[in-house]
Please model this.
Amino acid sequence: MEEDLIKRLEAAVTRLEGISSNGGGGGVVSLSRGGDFSSGAGTDVASSDPSILAYEDLISQCVGRVLTAAEKIGGPVLDVTKIVAEAFASQKELLVRIKQTQKPDLAGLAGFLKPLNDVTMKANAMTEGKRSDFFNHLKAASDSLSALAWIAFTGKDCGMSMPIAHVEESWQMAEFYNNKVLVEYRNKEADHVEWAKALKELYLPGLREYVKSHYPLGPVWNASGKPASAPAKAPPGAPAPPPAPLFSSESSKPSSSSNQKQGMSAVFQQLSSGAVTSGLRKVTDDMKTKNRADRSGAVSSVEKETRTSKPAFSKTGPPKMELQMGRKWAVENQIGKKDLVISECDSKQSVYIFGCKDSVLQIQGKVNNITIDKCTKMGVVFTDVVAAFEIVNCTNVEVQCQGSAPTVSVDNTTGCQLYLNKDSLETAITTAKSSEINVMVPGATPDGDWVEHALPQQYNHVFTEGKFETTPVSHSGA
Model:
């Protein structure tokens, strides 16, 4: 590591000496790893910054791995992967310019980020029209580019998640299609599996760890730099961008009922969708967990390999239990903790529990909603929820309601023990692709034993009088 750092510093000094000997003159500065940038000593110094060099490493290693896999597949997969590489190259150029530029206003930021948005629109265009045989590849790559919108983060009130969280959340959107690629080709063609794995590792941990190391609070603009302006030309090799602007004039001028947070939310929406009028992405029916045909209780060999080969990717970070922006309790990656307690909460807050194992959480007070996601052997004791209690992608969880809950939903979960009290017996329970769901209710008398009810997971479908009638399968024994 030290030798590599010394080599980088020596290379930077050599370039600076070359510029100095030429009087800081014009011309294009050619970087051995970074392509071509605008002339000037300021640009060369910025491109030699450790954060830029680290981004070059990310491109050469992680993006290079995806490209190598795509070259073996060819066709549309290679085309869309080249656009991904172009997007990362465009973001690198923007990072270099940020180090020389003053922080712009909303309209200026829109123009500044236009090159990145144009590349994203190119990827989105490949997913439109008639579906190709590689549609899942195209959607995974296209949707993943929304992670690059972390560069638009300007503060906690801008309407976006923090940069690290934004990268993680954006990948979750793309992972739906990436998993389809893994399932479709897991026992057929290794090149496609390698491509899907490489694409995931480009973002998790690749881009996430880069942002965490260099820009955890967003880009750092140069207060004494030059004013921001849109580049005079598109990135090398990119075709002319479509004429649609990133923002309409109305979006850059908040109304009396809007504020800066809504304006920055527009930045994120446009970068995510790649179109002016499309707004935030909508969840279609085929993306809903209950309709996902590629998900089941069984764990495929590819999924096992992914989970066991590099365990670090199964977590989003170190153990966490904190209130984020005053509205969301995040309880993540808690292992073997039996005494977790949330005591100060209110009905406007939500609780999100992710990646926990062999732990118990007690929520004292009424909250808006509670979600358990990808947890194993997790116990949750809560008082009241206003909206719903959701259990998703879990194994062997126990939930006890001490107050009331209008709705409890269980999706893609194996093993769930739900305890209801007398005040929550009218709770509506929805299950999808789940098994071993048991509900415990109080006995008829105050001193009576709890009564266990197993929710059905098998159904009979009979076509009668022009429609199907569905009834649970009943088992009887002697």
Remarks:
- The two ends are 71 Å apart (CA to CA).
- Residues 19-41, 232-263, 275-279, 308-315 have pLDDT under 50 and may be disordered.
- The CA atoms of residues 153 and 261 lie 11 Å apart.
- Residues 190-214 form the longest helix (25 residues).
